[in-house]
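### Sample
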Amino acid sequence: MNNELKFSKLVTEANSCFSAKNYKKSAELYDDALSLSPIFKDIKSVRKNLSKAKILNESSNNFNEGMEHFKNKNYESAMYLFSKISKEDAQNYKEAIKEIEESKPLLTKHMIEEANKEASNNKFGNALSFINQGLANDPNNKELISLKNKYEKENDVIQAAQDKANAEAEAEKYKPKRITKSDWIVSSPPIRMFTKIIIIIV
């Protein structure tokens, strides 16, 4: 079989795979066809189809991976993957927009739950991290804003207490040690003998 027939056969097969939404296989077949010779008459359309197949393959992968993250309640990753779906992938793009809108309130709810969990263990810094992630997704959410204010105050109180404790511990290192009479007598036998001599003389 000559190269032109091979080229034509590969392109036909690639087009079939493309129509069946098997973008990965169609991209491979278009690549194979182009490797035969870059001078056949359909070369421009093959290159265009190859480019589109690669875009749609990546888009399809992002959609499927996004759905997995969504099912596992990893809404932030799901939304990120859905946002990468190409408009050329019309069906998945429309579905992704719908999933993003559905994910937003679920992500907000999840962030609030995680923040409250951390706050119940007095880990207000961690709680604020979850709150800030939630606000990045939903900046006008009243519950998130209220919790942020509350947890910032709690965090400030704990931080102030920690700073005070650290300062006191540091100051304790430099505090002069008080010497008692028993420390002086036990630690200084020559002076004690000298004191006795003075007492006898007087």
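The chain has one domain: 42-201. This sample (Tetratricopeptide repeat protein) is used throughout the tutorial notebook.
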